[in-house]
# Entry
Amino acid sequence: MWELSVILDGFCIRIRKERFFMNLDMNQMLTLAYALMGFVALAGYIPQMRAFWFKPEVCAATPLITWCLWSAQTFVFFLYAVIANGDPMFVFNSGMFMCATFGCLSLIIRGRKIHAAGGKGALPKNVVRLKVA
# Structure
């Protein structure tokens, strides 16, 4: 535990860094929360990826430019994390998000190709094509 004392106009302000949550300090706790929230946010991509995989018509209605910008953005974040920042947790989280956005972008492009071919393409084997009577 450390303590910082600042005296301003006769008033003493004390800032203390306490240990809490089973002997984890604030930095360790924030690092753990940052890692966990990275996985939680990454899990948010799963429903989107499922929709892109199983429904090519969703891909046709999804703005491609938006996902291209997001993919470029996460690529720059990842490069910044690796080259300029060097924090392993930031590198890990930005790498996860980069993979997720590039995965979504590739599924959108795949789905658009299938949709443009009239649905006659390399559909996954577990997708059933319904015909109108």
Remarks:
- The longest strand covers residues 2-8.
- Residues 88-116 form the longest helix (29 residues).
- DSSP finds five helices and two strands in the chain.
- Strands lie at 2-8, 11-17.
